[in-house]
Amino acid sequence: MNNNKGNLNQLRKEITRTQIILIISITIFLSAGGLFINLKSINNAFNQTLQNTSELITRLYSFTRNMSQVELCVYMDNTASSISNVDIISIIDKNGNRIYHTNHNLINTEYGGTHPDFSSRSTNYYIEDSNGPSGPQRRTYSAIYDEDENYLGFIMTIALKTSMRNVTKHTVLFFLTVTLAAILIELTICTTISNKIKKEFLSFTEDFEGTKFLVDSMRANNHDFTNKLHVILGLIQIGEYEKAQNYIQNISIIQRETVSYVMHNIQNSSLAALLIGKIARASECNVKFNFKEYSAYKEDDIDVPSEALVTITGNLIDNALDSMNNSSNENKLLTVGIFTKPDQLLISVQDTGSGIPDDLKNKIFNNGFSTKGEGRGVGLYHTSQLIKSLGGEISLESQIGKGACFTVLLKR
Known about the structure:
Blueprint: H1 2-64, H2 69-81, E1 88-93, E2 98-101, E3 125-132, E4 135-145, E5 151-160, H3 161-237, H4 241-265, H5 269-284, E6 288-291, H6 306-325, E7 333-341, E8 344-350, H7 379-389, E9 393-399, E10 403-411
Parallel strand pairs: 6-7
Antiparallel strand pairs: 1-2, 1-5, 3-4, 4-5, 7-8, 8-10, 9-10
Helix pairs in contact: 1-3, 3-4, 3-5, 4-5, 5-6, 6-7
């Protein structure tokens, strides 16, 4: 059972890991694709902005070329300040002199850069990457003509590569932020779903474990029932009909009362199934099973995982039955007490076995220690470790020849 549960736990964790990897991978893939498309769109947008600006300045210049240089500077400065994504506007006449430049220090200076050749192109403008006084840049060249289609010069609208990189950097940072936010949101949702699945998984395993103990209980009851049938058959064969009748009535009352007590006072199905199974097993071992008065488990008092309840109680009862099986004491009595109150649980398991010597009391909770032979001694160690992990404690009282009593106290 523990191995199967371990495999199921491992499977659940593997599914969760795969889900997280898929979520992160898909998010990064989609974000990278979106970033690539966006960067390409930004590049096209820069080109379109430069082209549109170049066409606008060309039209405006056709109306302002007769202005004085001062008036042209004022007009073009106002125009340039209203245009985004364009860093430099430069107007060069056919002789290579700068009539206007966004940097006024370059006005009336000779342009020493590339002179565009429009004769080999189908349009009066084109875009290229180049270097200028302000560094690496993307330029749009636009030809200027007068009313008679005479070439007057050209206009350059320029976006500096540093500006373009800044826009690209901000775009990348934005996508990274959105990607991280998306991953965090998805992981939060994944965690919520995983926790829900975990609760359903635990509920399933608890129900499954409860079913297992019910099956064990039925198996033990079947064996016990067979033994009782042999007793009844023997009484009938020797003619003790009244004793057989009384025996039948007695075991029927005891069985009915025991099961009824467990079902009414133990509000955890897995623990109830375990106790019914252990009652049957005790009967097989000729051990009288007794509940301490007022024993009851109320789920409203304390929240303890069913698996932990079953492991702790089951191991302590099994150890007690083993102790009495190996004892010569004919008065075999197993007394179990389960009590709850708000945020507290007390479990006591007392037997009339051979008892535990004083020199072994401090060793029985050690890993691997056993008086039963090599390869044993794991149960009490794991039980004590589980109790400690739940914030509880386990204690032992024992007398040689009279038995032992284990007491577990949990406080939540």
